[in-house]
C-alpha cells in the first residue's frame, strides 16, 4: 500500500493557497521542503501539485524513459513573450528541434571558450568601477552583477556593447523582472484580474524585451560582422536536419530567452560573495590557489582547468544558492494507460498526468547525501568527492534534453567572475548582522545584501 504524500492542512475550498507566498514562491517551497522532507503536495483551487525535495526521488524523476519536462503554469504564461522558444516549447513542437540544432553548436564548451575574452573584459570593467569607489560607497551585489551579466551576455552572444555597468539601469533588466514576476503570479490569479489590472504590465515588459532583441538584430544587419557568434547563427543558420531557418519572430524569441536564462548566474555569484564573507578561511585557501596558478599576470582560459578549489566554490555555491530553484517534470504519457505512476519502488503513487516540481533547496541539501548540509564546504565538491555524489544532487541546470542549453556558457562566466573577484578585491558586509534572505521568480537572489568593495590588500592583480 503506497504511503500518502504529505500535505499541509490547508483550508476548505481554497486548499493550500495560504501556504505559498505568491510574491516569494520559492522561499515558501523551501520552508515546506524543510518541514515535509523528500516529497509533499499542495492543492490550490482543486489542482494538485507534487513537489520533490529529496535526492533519490530527484534522480528517479530525471529518468527520461519515464518522465519529461512539464510545460505548464509560469512557463506557459511566459510564452506570451517568447512563444515556442527553446525554453517554453512543448515536446511535440517541431520548433524546439529546429532551434536546438541551430543554437546548440554555438554553446558547446569549445564555442563558449571563444567568448572568454568578452567575459574577461566586461568583468574587468566592473572591477575597475568597484576599485574606484569611495570607502563609504555601498554596492548592491546583485544589482551590479545583474548589470555585468547583461553586459557580458549581450557582448559575448550577440556582439554588441551595451555599456550598462554605470548610469541608469538598462530597460531590459526591468523588462525581465516584470515579465518573470508576472509569469509566476498569473496562474494564481483569476483570469479577469490578469487581463484587467496586470495585463498592461505584462505587455509593456514583453515589448521592452523584444525591443532589446530587435535592436541587436538591426545593429548586426546594419554593421555586418565576421563574428561567428550565436546571433550570426540565429539570423543566418539553417537546421541541418530540416533545412529550416528561424523566422524573424523566432530570432527575437531566442535572443530574449538568453538573458532570462543567464539571470540565475548573478544570483549565484552574489550568494557566493555572502558565503565567502561568512567563511573567510575559504577566501584564504582560494587565494593561495589563484596566486600559485595565475601569479602577477592576468587570468587566461588555460588557467581555469587548474583552479580546482575555485571549481569547488562554484559548485558549492550552486548547491547552496539554488539560484535556478527548480524545474518541472511530468510522467511521459502512455497511450490508453491512465494507471497511477509509482515512485520510490511503490512507496508513493501519483496520477498518470501529475505535474511535479523539483525543489532544489531540498534536493541540494539532502542530509542523506551531505553531512552538515547547510555548511559551505567547497572541498567536498572537488575531484573524486564531487564525482562520487549521486546524480540527483547535480541537477543545477535541469535535466536531459531539456536542461539549460547555456550551461557551459554559465559555468565559464561563473568561473571567470568568481576567480577575478576573489583574486582582486576585498569585500566587507555593510550590515554585520545580515543573514541571507532570498527571493526571485525564475531565479533566486539575495535581498537587501550590500557590501563595500576595495582593491585587495597586497593584491596580485594586474593593472587594469
TrEMBL record:
It comes from the Eukaryota. Its cofactor is FMN; FAD; heme. The keyword Oxidoreductase applies. GO terms for molecular function: heme binding; iron ion binding; monooxygenase activity; oxidoreductase activity, acting on paired donors, with incorporation or reduction of molecular oxygen. Pfam families: p450. Keywords: Electron transport, FAD, Flavoprotein, FMN, Heme, Iron, Metal-binding, Monooxygenase, NADP, Oxidoreductase, Transport. Heme binds at residue 404. In the N-terminal section; belongs to the cytochrome P450 family. This is Bifunctional cytochrome P450/NADPH--P450 reductase. It comes from Colletotrichum liriopes.
Amino acid at each position: 500500500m503506497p504511503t500518502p504524500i504529505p500535505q499541509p492542512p490547508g483550508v476548505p475550498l481554497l486548499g493550500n493557497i495560504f501556504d505559498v507566498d505568491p510574491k516569494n514562491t520559492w522561499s515558501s517551497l523551501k520552508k515546506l521542503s524543510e518541514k515535509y522532507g523528500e516529497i509533499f503536495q499542495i492543492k490550490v483551487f482543486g489542482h494538485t501539485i507534487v513537489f520533490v525535495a529529496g535526492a533519490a526521488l530527484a534522480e528517479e524523476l530525471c529518468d527520461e524513459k519515464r518522465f519529461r519536462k512539464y510545460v505548464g503554469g509560469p512557463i506557459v504564461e511566459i510564452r506570451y513573450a517568447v512563444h515556442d522558444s527553446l525554453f517554453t516549447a512543448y515536446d511535440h513542437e517541431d520548433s524546439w528541434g529546429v532551434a536546438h540544432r541551430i543554437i546548440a553548436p554555438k554553446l558547446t564548451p569549445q564555442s563558449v571558450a571563444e567568448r572568454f575574452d568578452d567575459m574577461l573584459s566586461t568583468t574587468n570593467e566592473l572591477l575597475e568601477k568597484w576599485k574606484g569607489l569611495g570607502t563609504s560607497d555601498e554596492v548592491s551585489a546583485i544589482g551590479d552583477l545583474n548589470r555585468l551579466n547583461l553586459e557580458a551576455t549581450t557582448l559575448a552572444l550577440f556582439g554588441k556593447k551595451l555599456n550598462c555597468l554605470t548610469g541608469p539601469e538598462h530597460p531590459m533588466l526591468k523588462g525581465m523582472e516584470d515579465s518573470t514576476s508576472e509569469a509566476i503570479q498569473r496562474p494564481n490569479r483569476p483570469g479577469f484580474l490578469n487581463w484587467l489590472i496586470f495585463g498592461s504590465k505584462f505587455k509593456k515588459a514583453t515589448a521592452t524585451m523584444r525591443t532589446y532583441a530587435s535592436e541587436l538584430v538591426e545593429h548586426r544587419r546594419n554593421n555586418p560582422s565576421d563574428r561567428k557568434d550565436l546571433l550570426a547563427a540565429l539570423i543566418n543558420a539553417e537546421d541541418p536536419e530540416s533545412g529550416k531557418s528561424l523566422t524573424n519572430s523566432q530570432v527575437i524569441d531566442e535572443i530574449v530567452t538568453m538573458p532570462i536564462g543567464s539571470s540565475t548566474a548573478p544570483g549565484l555569484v552574489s550568494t557566493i560573495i555572502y558565503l565567502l564573507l561568512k567563511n573567510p578561511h575559504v577566501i584564504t585557501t582560494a587565494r593561495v590557489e589563484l596566486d600559485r596558478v595565475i601569479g602577477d599576470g592576468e587570468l587566461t582560459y588555460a588557467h581555469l582547468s587548474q583552479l580546482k578549489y575555485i571549481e569547488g566554490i562554484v559548485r558549492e555555491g550552486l548547491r547552496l544558492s539554488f539560484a535556478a530553484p527548480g524545474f518541472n517534470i511530468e510522467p511521459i504519457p502512455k497511450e490508453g494507460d491512465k494507471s497511477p505512476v509509482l515512485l520510490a519502488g511503490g512507496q508513493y503513487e501519483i496520477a498518470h498526468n501529475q505535474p511535479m516540481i523539483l525543489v532544489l533547496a531540498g534536493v541540494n541539501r539532502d542530509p542523506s547525501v551531505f553531512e552538515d548540509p547547510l555548511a559551505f564546504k567547497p572541498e567536498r565538491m572537488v575531484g573524486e568527492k564531487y564525482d562520487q555524489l549521486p546524480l540527483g544532487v547535480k541537477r543545477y541546470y535541469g535535466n536531459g534534453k531539456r536542461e539549460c542549453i547555456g550551461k557551459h556558457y554559465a559555468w565559464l562566466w561563473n568561473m571567470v567572475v568568481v576567480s577575478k573577484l576573489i583574486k582582486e578585491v576585498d569585500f566587507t558586509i555593510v550590515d554585520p548582522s545580515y543573514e541571507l534572505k532570498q527571493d526571485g521568480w525564475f531565479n533566486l537572489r539575495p535581498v537587501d545584501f550590500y557590501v563595500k568593495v576595495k582593491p585587495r590588500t597586497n593584491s596580485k592583480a594586474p593593472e587594469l
